[in-house]
Amino acid sequence: MIRRPRRNRQNEVIRNMVQETSLTLNDFIFPLFIIEGQNKRVEVASMPGINRFSIDTLLEEIASCVDLGVKAFAPFASIPEQLKDKYATDSHNPDGLYARAIREVKRNFPEVVLMTDVAMDPYSSDGHDGIVEGGEILNDETLEVLGKMALTQAQAGADIVGPSDMMDGRVAHIRRVLDENGYHKVGIMSYTAKYASAFYGPFRDALDSAPKKGDKKTYQMNPANSREALIEAELDIAEGADFLMVKPALAYLDIIKALHDNSHLPIAAYNVSGEYAMVKAAAEKGWLDGEKAMLESLLSIKRAGADVILSYFAKEYAQFLRK
Questions:
Q1: 136, 135, 98: which is closest to 119 by C-alpha?
Q2: CA of 245: how far to CAs of 123, 193, 197, 269, in Å?
Q3: Is pLDDT above 70 for 98?
Q4: Residues recognised as catalytic
Q5: 221 DSSP assignment
Q6: Strands (E), the chain
Q7: Which residues contact 223 (CB under 8 A, 6 or more apart)?
């Protein structure tokens, strides 16, 4: 035999030398959950190791992450039920929990990057990403709320806003609102291909943001479709997106690759709560090695073409690198 591929696998030095894909902390954004109160750190039952933080403990958590080398975060707010309404009014309240948290993080850690969430569901009494009328999700009327939300987040200090709602035309509307108000430097990481997935369950537990009626299939994408993701990407690029995101990640590696191969924009992938919870649950049962499964999963997302990975494993991966 002239060709023996095993020659390049025979020891660790050679394996590392020819390794095609590498993960660094620069690849990660760490999602964090925020709640009202003081000195609160409440574990999410379905996401072992992940907590909901009051603003004071959030700052402590970010400090520990920064010490490990994690410098980018995606906060999500859990809003008390009494503050939710049909039009998600609290989503653009400059004195609300989310805006206060953003301001405090940027005041204490001006060097970190905050990617914020633009969607109505955590603030909506209906639990949907858009305004609901007669069982229908209204697209164009929802854009006005999303624009106000993005502007409030930018004013509070957001570096990147992340419209996760999947309304048509929202990237263009948000870009126009930001630019008209002087926030030209604030980027948009569009949830370009956000699928109607079963893997979001633990996240909705963390924020209590599940729809009160119906589902999200009229705006989130059908898991059976791949070409449709290219249509969404083409629109987001034309409307001014700075990043394109695929969500979830592991069940949609082909979509990550498709966007990577068909766009010059950076591609992000959201390694979602259900993907995290599966690994943690199996590891607790002793059915697999949790650390090795984490590393393999994250590497597969990067290998598929993701430039940025939103993952609940981000801090754990940073701790792994310190070993």
A1: 98
A2: 23, 6, 15, 5
A3: yes
A4: 194, 247
A5: B
A6: 28-34, 41-43, 51-53, 72-77, 113-118, 131-133, 136-138, 160-163, 187-194, 243-247, 267-271, 308-311
A7: 195, 196, 197, 251
Confidence of residue 185 (pLDDT cuts 50, 70, 90): very high
CA 311 to each of CA 15, 112, 155: distance values in angstroms, whole numbers, following the listed order: 26, 17, 26
pLDDT(319) > 80? yes
196 vs 201: which has the higher pLDDT? 196
SS3 246: strand
4 Cβ partners below 8 Å, 6+ apart? none
Paired with 162 in beta bridges are 117
For 17, the token pair is 């030398």
Rounded to the nearest 5°, which phi and psi values hold at 56? -65, -45
SS3 category, 228: helix
- pLDDT at residue 201, as a whole number: 84
Question: Residue 240 corresponds to which amino acid?
Answer: G
Interatomic CA distance for residues 120 and 129, integer angstroms: 5
Peptide bond into 248 cis (omega under 30): yes
Backbone angles phi, psi at 104, to 5 degrees: -65, -40
Which tokens in the block code for residue 250? 């592991």
Whole-number Å distance between alpha carbons of 1 and 108 = 62
Look at strands 51-53 and 243-247 and give their pairing.
unpaired
pTM here? 0.95
How far is 152 from 208, CA to CA, in rounded Å? 22
